[in-house]
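Thread title: Can someone regenerate the structure for this chain?

I was given the following input by a collaborator and told the matching structure tokens would be attached. They weren't. Posting the sequence so someone can regenerate them.
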Amino acid sequence: MNTSSTYTTNAVLLAQLLERLERGGHPDAAQYRMVARRLTDELRRVTDVDALNSVLEAHPAAAQLYENMNYQHAGLCRSLLDASLASEQRARDAIALAMRPTTEGSGLA
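Best answer:
Regenerated them for you:
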């Protein structure tokens, strides 16, 4: 039995399940957490870097989970730079808007 292959197969199956849960509309929170936790465990066991990258490229939800698992070491290493920069700019704009003083007569509290 090739355990590395088994871990990869398990990771693929769980990644597919996580994708279905995310696209399904309203997944049960406990079920979602269980699948995410099990997928996290399986992703940690995959030792073949090429196989791991294949799983992550094919399954965006798994890639996001993997990125979150490794955030303390690599940040948002798998996110597209443009998407990351756009998110950061939107956050800055929202913060700047929230920090603006309200003007009298604007109808805002």
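DSSP finds six helices and no strands in the chain.
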